[in-house]
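Quick start: read one record
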Amino acid sequence: MQFIEHYLPAFQFREQHFIIADASPRQLLEAVLLPGATEDPWAKRFIRLRELPDRALGWMGAKSSLQHRPAFGLDDFMHLGADMERELAFGLVGRFWQRDYGLVRLAAPQAEFAPYLEPNLAKLVLNFSAEMLPSGRTRLMTETRVYCSDAQALYRFTPYWWLIRPVSGLIRRRLLARIRGLAEARGI
């Protein structure tokens, strides 16, 4: 069973993207974990724009949850699982529609993520899977699933999803291309 199926079998939102690469599944998945692999100038711009309202409050002396935190990134995700021959999974729990993302940190994410439920909350799994094709090339796919815990969370998350989805898709496609480039160039 895939990690994404274990951690988030039910969901209301889903996004998938893939790319074909001349690298092994292991090389591609190891490239995901390389320092800086997820750093993308476009992603940084969109995240800065997304965080601007909260950070601006901090600059003006008002309460800001993000003022002293680095910009949102893969480090904010909790590691859920790794099988370096086929997939990696990362999770988030929070109220993503809030200015500060409303993130909830779990002490033991691999044990607590699947059963965790709280009202007005969303859970997200970001999965990378790699599969060797008959041609000898590899398909690297990213899938994002989101589950909203109740009607209130669904009501709040839905407009946020439709607003960020085009940007999220662009970021995912750029991320896949970056990972492919790193894996192919380094021959990890």
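The chain has one domain: 3-52+71-186.
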